[in-house]
Amino acid sequence: MYYELSDGERNNRIVWASVRATLERFRFKYKRGGFKTKSKYRLFEKLLLLFGLMLKVIGVYRKGVQNAMNINIENIEVESYSLPQEFKGFRILFLSDLHIDAIDGFEDVIIKKIEGFSYDLCVITGDFRMDTEGSFRKILPAVKKIVDAVKAPFGVLAVLGNHDTYLMVEPFEAMGIRCLINETVFLTKNKAKITVAGTDDTYYFYTDKAMDVLEQDAGGFKICLSHTSELSDVAARNNFKLYLCGHTHGGQICLPGGKPVISHQKSSALKVKGLWKEGEMTGYTSRGVGVSGIPLRFNCPPEITLVTLKQKNR
Which of 3, 15, 23, 99 could be joined to 178 by an S-S link, Cβ 3.0–4.6 Å? Predict the structure, then answer.
């Protein structure tokens, strides 16, 4: 499906790109609460390197890589009174946190996993690459390969994550990904419609425009795509029915039983992974497809999620 930008959206993107470029250039995090600080991700990377060396010494590194390659398929159902009859059974292929360059050839693992599945729409909630700065061009062939393998009548919608750069938007849209930069699109079947709103990343690059797009009164069944769960309260307050996000990787490296060692999730431990509720809204935090920082997983398998929309009986 082709999603055309309005004149207003084109103008808004020019302003957004200018702001995002400044934040990226000076390595600032800007959060919803207004707190701004320089990123300490370089220090975190050094600590991860030491951790990886330790795992090699004790002989479990290879197992962690194998775990990272073993993608689970998660099937969830979301019921709502407001879902139009025409969208009953509508299926969404939900991918998050690809970090596609973390493991060589990982795109082929993803493509093999989604072969044979039937779905109507594909959504991706950010973090396409491993690094947080530098050139992103090396990931484009792998991302395009995945997009070409996706067979979704309603196309591919995506938002950016904190590892992504504003410069990705143009090449992504050229290959068929409709990026939602604090924007809304409408999916129509016959005369019925559902709304999908997407926000820019709010973990590093929050602006009030992310909140504004969720406060627009579109009505009906509304889906929010955001890299993190940080705006879930705003979405729930504005009658969104489904909130899809990632970012946490479910912890990626967890203690037995799946308890995360680090989740990069401060707002709520309940939203680190899986299904959760906020008011009348259903939320889902993906454990992510890929890995970040270190190409390993323990007690937290990667996932590709299939979301089926259903009408709730009154």
Answer: 3
Nearest to 203 by CA among 39, 47, 46: 39
pLDDT tens-place string over residues 250-303: 999 999 988 888 777 665 667 999 999 999 999 999 999 999 988 999 999 999
232, 223 contact by CB (below 8 A): no
Q: How far apart are the C-alpha atoms of 238 and 218, rounded to whole Å?
A: 10
The C-alpha angle with vertex 4 and arms to 231 and 97, in degrees rounded to 5, equals 40
User: In Å, what is the CA distance from 240 to each residue of 80, 223, 296?
Assistant: 11, 6, 34
Instruction: Count how many Cα atoms sit within 13 Å of the Cα of residue 198 in the half-sphere of its side chain.
Output: 21
The string of pLDDT tens digits covering residues 45-98 is 666 677 777 777 788 899 999 999 999 999 999 999 999 999 999 999 999 999
- Structure-token pair, residue 88: 């009953």
Q: Which residues pair with 63 in a beta bridge?
A: none
Q: How far apart are CA 14 and CA 252, in angstroms?
A: 35
The domains located in the chain, with CATH, are 7-311 (3.60.21.10)
Write out pLDDT tens, residues 18-30. Answer: 999 999 998 878 7
Q: Report yes or no: 122 and 150 within 8 Å, Cβ to Cβ.
A: yes
Give the H or E element holding residue 209.
Answer: helix 208-214
